[in-house]
Hints:
The protein is of the alpha/beta class.
Amino acid sequence: MMSCCAHSRSAARLFSHFARRYRRRFEKKGLEASQRQLVEGLERAGFGDASLLEVGSGVGYLHQYLLQRGAATAVGVDLTPKMIEEAEALARKNGLTERTGYRVADFVDAAASFEPADVVLLDKVICCYPDAERMVQTSLAKAKRVYAYTIPRDRWYTRLGVALGALGLRLLRSDYRSYVHDPRQIEAWVTAAGFTKRYENQTLIWLTGVYVRG
Length: 214
């Protein structure tokens, strides 16, 4: 397996091409089905007046959506400078500049520099990192009250899709890969840290889990 640092550099290069497209897609179509499920789970767990930390925040629309519906502040961290540029522009457009903060960083490597938050979010992020345990454990350590994620379901067709994607990326000479990590193992790490599942839902491709401390 390639190093996480090399993988992160490749991911940053790849996703830089999609930043503006992601923002425009949200402005046209809104949240994806799996993200609506994530919001539903967070509503059950409670995010009113909460501080948010979104790991792999992309162009920022998910946590900004939550800010517009009652969360207090949000910090977004992403590998890709262009994603952060789009997130900052969207925050200005939404009047959320004073309630948001953004960092370009590999969260796992920079975790010590982030303050804990009431709610930690990882929307389709764990699957982008080769060392799932390291990503989960470092992000869990920052969650005061709620931990939420969306990951691929462990099904033959998701694994086939990831394998075909890897073939395409290899042809493009990109070192980035996505992963279908074991959902049962991820849940075991989360519950071992003292969290209890409050919500679970799924689409054809994605599995969403929301956990509360204690």
